[in-house]
Structure formats: structure tokens, C-alpha cells
Design a protein that fits this description.
Helices cover 45% and strands 21% of the residues. The protein has 9 helices and 12 strands. Strands 2-1-3-4-5 form a 5-stranded parallel β-sheet, sandwiched between helices. A 4-stranded antiparallel β-sheet has the order 6-7-8-9.
Length: 233
């Protein structure tokens, strides 16, 4: 039996039924809520492992719910919404969502997003103090204490900005980080020229860590939104 508890926040009964039936079939435990007020109550009372959140709820906007939950918890939040504009995705991700799935969606994609989040949860929960000081992903290794990066056991020579970018992505592996989030973390601002600089530094970083920069293995671009570090087996 899968022990993960998932809170499904969806006001459409048919979609809520589809999601909960899928979760039950794959042995996830679940709770459900049809509005924002009850969702916040369930989240605070039961502390679910993952929240699946619709944005268009009858009593409050889903982005507000994300902000309220983020005030006291880092529980993963996957948005499932009919809003497909980049601006909507960016607003939800900047508010603290971990992932964004657009309706209509396939059951297979939903389960894949859950597996990615589950792996990230397991990694966060299981790594020891030693592992916290050394990050390993495929052939990439970051020694946070020494400030060194290795690829296939060969040390890479990164600029300070490239190193900070790589650390930020690695510490949020599997999570989409928006341009605004990254530039705020690296430069402390989000001006247009900061985003242009980010693209340049990301391109130079990829040349150093990717065997084929045009088909990246480690860093995935979400066009118009941001970047995500992928888990490499």
C-alpha cells in the first residue's frame, strides 16, 4: 500500500472523481476538497504529502491558497488548471507551486508528475548529513562544502554565477524555477536585463555540463517560464 496522502482540491465533481479513482487504483491515500476554505482546513489538519490544486475554485483563487499554505508548510503543490497562459503558470509557480499540469490532462501524465514529486520527497527525507553536503545526479557531483563540481569525476571550472545557478537548480531538483525566482535568488532583482543575463549564463553552464547542449540531459527549459533540473538515473 502506497503510504503517501494526497489532497485533491477540485470543484468539478467529474474531474475530482477521475483523480481520486486514479489515486485509489494506484494505492495512494487521498482526501478531497471542493473549495479553498475546506482545502486549507484539510491541509492544516492532515498535513498531506502532496496537494493537487485547481486554481478556479468557487470561493477563492488557487494562487491565494498556495500563498496561505506556503506561510506554514513546504508540502509539494501540483497545480492542475485549465489556465494555460504562461502568465498564469508563472504566477502559480512564483507563489510556491512545485509543478503545473494543464487541463485536459492524461492520467498517465498525472501519475508521472506524482512519481517525480514522490522521488524528490524520498530524496529529501532519506539523505543523511553527508549526502546533504555532496549532491550526486548521474555523472554530475557537487561538493557544496568544497565548492567544487565534478562531471565523470573530472572537476569543472565554473564561474561564480554558473556555480550559484547550478546549486540553486540542484537544491530544487525536479521543481520548475521561474525566471523571476532564479534572478531574485542570484542577483536580488528581476529586471529584463537580469533575465537576459540568466539566458546567457544558462547557455554557458550547459556547454560545461551537457554532452549535447542542444539536447540537454540535466537542465530542462520551460519556454517563457523558467528552468528545471532533471533527475538522471
Amino acid at each position: 500500500m502506497n503510504k503517501l496522502l494526497i489532497l485533491v482540491v477540485e470543484d468539478d465533481p467529474s474531474i475530482r472523481k477521475l483523480i481520486t479513482t486514479t489515486l485509489k487504483a494506484h494505492e495512494y491515500r487521498y482526501l478531497s476538497a471542493a473549495n479553498g476554505q475546506f482545502a486549507i482546513l484539510e491541509a492544516s489538519s492532515h498535513n498531506p504529502d502532496i496537494v493537487l490544486l485547481d486554481l478556479g475554485l468557487p470561493d477563492m483563487d488557487g494562487v491565494e491558497i498556495i500563498r496561505k499554505i506556503r506561510a506554514w508548510s513546504n508540502m509539494p503543490i501540483i497545480v492542475i488548471s485549465a489556465r494555460s497562459e504562461d502568465s498564469d503558470k508563472i504566477e502559480a509557480l512564483d507563489a510556491g507551486a512545485d509543478d503545473y499540469l494543464t487541463k485536459p490532462f492524461s492520467v498517465e501524465e498525472l501519475l508521472a508528475r506524482l512519481r517525480v514529486t514522490q522521488r524528490r520527497l524520498a530524496m529529501m527525507q532519506n539523505r543523511s548529513q553527508v549526502e546533504e553536503s555532496v549532491f550526486t545526479n548521474g555523472s554530475l557531483k557537487i561538493d557544496y562544502v568544497a565548492g567544487c563540481v565534478y562531471l565523470n569525476e573530472n572537476e569543472l571550472h565554473l564561474t561564480p554565477i554558473e556555480y550559484k545557478l547550478l546549486c540553486l537548480l540542484s537544491q530544487n531538483i525536479g521543481k520548475v524555477l521561474t525566471h523571476t525566482y532564479i534572478t531574485q535568488a542570484i542577483w536580488g532583482s528581476s529586471w529584463e536585463n537580469d533575465i537576459a543575463s540568466l539566458r546567457v549564463f544558462m547557455a554557458t553552464l550547459r556547454k560545461k555540463i551537457e554532452s549535447a547542449p542542444d539536447s540537454p540531459q540535466y537542465i530542462q527549459t520551460h519556454i517563457g517560464v523558467g528552468y528545471r533540473m532533471l533527475r538522471v538515473e
